[in-house]
Amino acid sequence: MDALIRTDEVTKRYDGDAAPAVDGVSLQITPGEAVAIMGPSNSGKPRLLNMNAGLDRAPRVCVLVPTLNEADNAGPLVARLGPVLAGLGGEVLFVDDSDDHTPAAVAAAASAAAVPVRLLHRALSERTGG
Predict the structure, then answer these.
(1) Which of 50, 47, 54 has its CA nearest to residue 21?
(2) How far apart are CA 42 and CA 23, in angstroms?
(3) Maximum distance among all alpha carbons in the chain?
(4) CA atoms within 13 A on the CB side of 8
(5) pTM value?
(6) Backbone angles phi, psi at 94, to 5 degrees
């Protein structure tokens, strides 16, 4: 059966907060299904419900940036993408397989960014494929 409500990897931050109100939530609810949204205080339950009700919105654009030892390029890239994505409700997601200081460079760029910047860093032991 098709989903009545569906979200995929939704993240929502407010005013450049370091910690997101909702972080990477996927949800699928089919017609007639009863669902309880549970979690501790300040875990983003109202934000998730508001996004699904259309009262709040998740980013509409996510720029996915795969990186491998790109520390010198992370800051300039975020600085160039930020103004463009800010008007679109966008975010930047780095998927990083670096062994250098790219994660620190992404974190530094995120602190000054006009849009949310997320990092998924995969350590050497977590990398698969070729």
Answers:
(1) 47
(2) 12
(3) 51
(4) 4
(5) 0.57
(6) -90, 130
Comparing C-alpha atoms, which of 117, 41, 38 is closest to residue 75? 117
CB 48 within 8 A of CB 22: yes
Q: Which residues contact 123 (CB under 8 A, 6 or more apart)?
A: none
Query: Whose structure tokens read 């520390």?
Result: 71
Q: Residue 60: helix, strand or coil by DSSP?
A: coil
Contact 61, 88 (CB under 8 A): yes
d(CA 81, CA 52): 27
pLDDT in tens, the chain (130 residues): 576 777 777 777 766 656 777 787 888 888 788 888 888 887 778 877 777 776 666 657 788 899 999 999 999 999 999 988 887 778 899 999 999 999 999 999 999 998 999 999 988 888 877 6
CA 93 to chain centre: 6
Tokens of 36: 């309880």
The answer to whether the CB of 89 falls within 8 A of the CB of 61 is yes
Tokens of 52: 């699904």
